[in-house]
Amino acid sequence: MPQFDDPFTTKKPNVTQTTTTTHAEVTPPLGDIPPAQLAINAAEGRRGAAWRLMLWIIDDDPRAMEAVASLEDDRLAHHLLEFIALGTWAGKPFVVPPKLRSSYARIRLSNLLQAGGAMTRERAERVLFAGFRDRRQEVRGTAITILGEMGDRVAEPLLLQALHDPSHQVRMQAARALGKLRDPSVVPTLLETLKGADEQMVNQVFASLVQIGPPAIPAVAHEMHSASPWIRWHCMRAFGEMQDFRAIPYLIAGLRDPDTGVCWMAAKSLVLYGKASLEPVLRQLESSVPNQLQAETSCYILHQLYLRDSKLTPYLKPVVEAFSGVANTLAVSSLASKALAQLRADHLLSI
């Protein structure tokens, strides 16, 4: 039998199986070929050498890691990227041992292309940048994902370019990767992609804005003027997840949004800020007689706050109960003013 012929790479004629265990379920012996030679052969496109080397790698064999690190041949890294993305090697399909079929195995292999992996950063970036230009969308997407995990801003121009990739999945992965870079300068470009974006892309863009954090607050606040209630709803959710006190005034403004869903998302996000949201909520109730929706969402916030802190119950419960009474919104405004004054006098507004 040739050196690397095995059930995972060699085509066999159809034969009736007499047992319930298939070739794909059995891992042939690894043999005694040193990992350094396996790496050379795998770089040349030999699939039998490839799966043997990958098994050594995910088993943390230091010889395998050294073999990958010392091999001056980018083809091995290109083939690894292809396998992670497509499960093929050098453009050829093959059935790998069960241990290599898991997401865990692909994560371990992708670590080779990241900082601190077996390859140098220069080689990893060279291979990943080439993967970004691959005609196969799966390879482009995988390269973008790994670049995002590396967190290297040298890849930022490519990631911004990938926001316009023909593949929806690649655009999604580019938006995700940009969030991981946490560079505020990409915020305007991310927001630009909201035009005509579907629900998945909108979700991902706002998730990336949350990762960028407080520097994105002014730009997100600008989107509160969007004609789309769906965009405004996402703004409220993002402000809640950012957990930055500078977002509270925008959430208070969200309580006055004409859309019911946006108002309720603003209210639920304010609850996440705990006691820090108490005074702003009471102030906006005090300043003018709220409409039905404003009173309902504000009382929901107050109710959640005194459930979490029993010291607030005597002050806030009358406001909440007034909303359910005959006086309704008229009573809510005056009672909110009274509660605010009592809380100040008793020094309970400090966080």
From TrEMBL:
UniProt xrefs under InterPro entries: ARM-like (IPR011989), ARM-type_fold (IPR016024), PBS_lyase_HEAT (IPR004155)
Keyword annotations from UniProtKB, A to Z: Lyase
Compositional bias per record (Low complexity), positions renumbered to this chain: 10-28
Short name of any one Pfam family annotated for the protein: HEAT_2
Region described as Disordered: spans on this chain: 1-30
A single MF term (Gene Ontology): lyase activity
The protein's name: PBS lyase HEAT domain protein repeat-containing protein
Native species: Ktedonobacter racemifer DSM 44963
